[in-house]
Amino acid sequence: MMKALVIGFIRDEQGQDLVEYALIVAAVGLALITTVNQLSQGIVSLYQSMTVDLSGIGAQQ
């Protein structure tokens, strides 16, 4: 009886799909966080250079 339960538990793959989907979601989430972080730093840098250039236009005479 106990041996049959252990063998059945080992062969059961019902939760395997859930674990695979969770790993995929975690990988995609990590990639999105990394991409958004790098993209936001680039946008901030571009905005700062634009404001410096625009403020320099008014100062030149």
N-end to C-end Cα span: 94 Å
Helix content: over 70%
Instruction: Indicate the mean pLDDT.
Output: 84
- Secondary-structure content class: mainly alpha
Number of helices: 2
Largest sheet descriptor: none
What features would you describe in this structure?
This protein has helices at 2-11, 16-59. With 61 residues, the protein is mainly α.
In short:
The chain is mostly helical.
Which terms summarize this structure?
single chain, 61 residues, mainly alpha, 89% helix
What's the layout of helices and strands?
Blueprint lengths: L1 H10 L4 H44 L2
